[in-house]
Amino acid sequence: MHQLIKSICCTTLTILFATAVSSAVEARPNVIIILADDLGCGDMSLYDGWIETPRIDQMAKEGVKFTDFHSNSSVCSPTRAALLTGRYQQRVGIVDVIAGHLDTPGLEATELTISKLMKRAGYSTAIFGKWHLGPELRHNPIHHGFDEFIGFLPGGCDYHRHSDWWDGTERKEQKGYSTHIITDKSIDFIRRNKENPFFLYVSHQAVHNFYQIPSDPPELRMRDAPLHGDEARRRYKIMLKDLDQGVGRILNTLKELDLDEDTLVLFTSDNGAVRMNPNARPYRGGKFSNYEGGHRVPAVARWTGHIKQGWVSDELIVGMDVLPTVMDIVGIDISKERKVDGMSVKDHLLDQADLPDRKVFFGYEPKLGTAMRDGDWKMQTKGDRIELYDLSNDIKETTNVADKYPRRTAEMKAAIKKWKLEVVSKNVTP
């Protein structure tokens, strides 16, 4: 009898343990971040733009569209640093585009990244496409927690010639068109890891110039593609529609493998528009600007069965919020790891909960100065120049009201000064 009871207890414990393990696995969704390059809100049909993007539009119908989502900077390297670390890019000294002539440092392996945290937690991790966080071997994505990396290290390259691409820490030429290669590698990674939790960073080159399209002949080098005018816009449109199709192929793969309910997918861009829109743009400024058009970017999140379908978020969210949000969702405690500047928006994402008020800063120093959002109030400062806008009735930032609201102006100016002292790298002029 005692042996029977012991056997029953052991069996019960085994079942309970198996159930707990199963629940833990179910609670650890796959995570895919799809990052476009130089894509502003005003170009996409999702935001009433001039180019039809049906697959991204459908993704929004199956999840949430964000209307006040921002990259941390209006250029790519700082944005990517903030996205991966959950911290203001100023803390790691990456405040400008990383390029040889600018002598900008890369992201050092001492930084704690979302990929490193996911790998520690048992996730398979990969990045395919653009890195742009440092050209040296020590900066390579493999040293930042990525198991796999196929792509390129600088800010841009030819869409058809890939002799400067890397496979891990070794140069390895790839064949094909950049957008297709990145999508194909991503789908292959998903298929190979369908039984395991994975983190995938799909880092597209499109729609960054030069405007090369899949049908271009091999002899058309990137600098032969026009950068302005009707022909450039025609090419840009083809590139964006091709990117949209790539997003659709990834979503199709998730559905085919029955991974829809197990995978959180975020689509966004690394900075605002490059002024290709032939119509009136929704926001002032674009890439290389601290106005809203420089850092307000398209964003959609989809997680079937978890994110309410077809709702729209008007909350202020920033790229550095991605890391703490993902950590919160997958159950990785980072409270003792490192203080992050972003905040988890998990409850907002899954339950439409309101977000707390906060001040958010956008810096591109020393070139553009600093911008700040405090609710609907927007301030820009550079030297003695101060601009204040009330976005609730002036979304295009046309009327500087700094003189009209001296108290508000003084408070926000003081907040910017305090923030700079806290985060600006010693190598950067405030």
Descriptive account of the structure:
By secondary structure, this protein is α/β, with parallel strands linked by helices. A ten-stranded mixed sheet has the order 7-6-5-4-8-1-9-10-2-11, with helices on both faces. A four-stranded antiparallel sheet has the order 13-14-15-16, with helices on one face. It has two domains: 27-356, 3-Layer(aba) Sandwich (Alkaline Phosphatase, subunit A); 361-423, Arylsulfatase, C-terminal domain (2-Layer Sandwich). The chain contains ten helices and 16 strands. The chain is globular.
C-alpha Rg (nearest Å)? 22 Å
Order of helices and strands: HEHEEHHEEEEHEHEHEEEHHEEEEH
Q: What general outline do the C-alpha atoms trace?
A: globular
- The number of distinct β-strands equals 16
SS content category: alpha/beta
The end-to-end span amounts to 78 Å
Q: Kindly report the CATH topology of the largest domain.
A: Alkaline Phosphatase, subunit A
**CATH-wise, what's the superfamily of the largest domain?**
Alkaline Phosphatase, subunit A
**Proportion in helices:** 25-40%
**What is the CATH C-level name of the largest domain?**
Alpha Beta
